[in-house]
Write a structure and sequence with these properties.
By secondary structure, the chain is an alpha/beta fold. The chain has eight helices and nine strands. It is elongated, with a radius of gyration of 22 Å.
Length: 231
């Protein structure tokens, strides 16, 4: 079997992996890159960037609600489907645009998760890859719940692709992702409940910042269950 050799091989095409790959090319290195999902990573395809569309909508609805009786006589309607279509227009273009950028730099691309054969050798797409340096930039994935019925739970990817908003939602976890999505849903009229075993929401953040946010969350109708006493 033939062996492909690179100075640097990057696993992951998100913002971190792409930045490393581009910097290495600029430094004169021969670079390869691989990803088993859409090129462009979580942030651009199913994270921060598409999330901003829904944040924008929820902020408009929230501000309008607060202006009722102060010049606003009725709440505007919104179309979740139209917002999804708008999001889809720019998200769908990300993988091809990312691949075009990488190709223009002479970076060789692979569409599969590599397997390590040793610290400098990979197997990907039936090929053997050797690299002086291998960079792992694969990001994170949601923690698997060790509870019965976990297969029925959704993750953040699913939230951003919902075909319609439900009347109510339960979020397991009051970390920053759960809180962000919970606020989007609540400000768009969904009855939201958050379950967490920590003493407070956003337990890794400064309490002086989190306490006012917790109050605001409760003011817009978010219920917290499990906090301070465990689920």
């Amino acid at each position: 079997m033939s062996i492909k050799e690179f100075d640097v091989f990057v696993i992951g095409t998100g913002s971190a992996g792409k930045t490393v790959a581009e910097a290495c090319v600029e430094a004169g290195k021969k670079v390869g890159i691989a990803d088993h999902r859409e090129f462009g990573g979580t942030c651009a395809n199913r994270g921060c960037d598409p999330k901003k569309v829904f944040v924008g909508l929820s902020e408009i609805m929230d501000r309008t609600e607060k202006m009722k009786g102060k010049g606003i006589t009725q709440m505007p309607e919104f179309s979740w489907q139209n917002i999804q279509n708008f999001k889809k227009k720019f998200v769908d273009a990300v993988p091809a645009a990312t691949e075009k950028d990488l190709k223009s730099l002479g970076i060789e691309m692979y569409h599969q998760s590599p397997q390590f054969l040793d610290e400098n050798t990979l197997s990907v797409e039936g090929k053997t890859i050797k690299a002086k340096k291998i960079v792992i930039a694969t990001g994170q994935k949601p923690m698997e719940l060790k509870i019965p019925g976990r297969d029925f739970a959704l993750v953040s990817d699913d939230f951003l692709d919902l075909s319609e908003l439900p009347e109510s939602m339960i979020f397991i976890g009051a970390g920053y992702i759960g809180m962000e999505l919970a606020h989007i849903a609540a400000r768009l009229g969904v009855k939201v409940t958050i379950l967490d075993m920590a003493d407070r929401p956003l337990s890794n953040f400064n309490e002086k910042i989190v306490n006012p946010l917790t109050k605001i969350s409760e003011d817009i109708g978010i219920d917290f269950i499990g906090l301070k006493k465990g689920i």
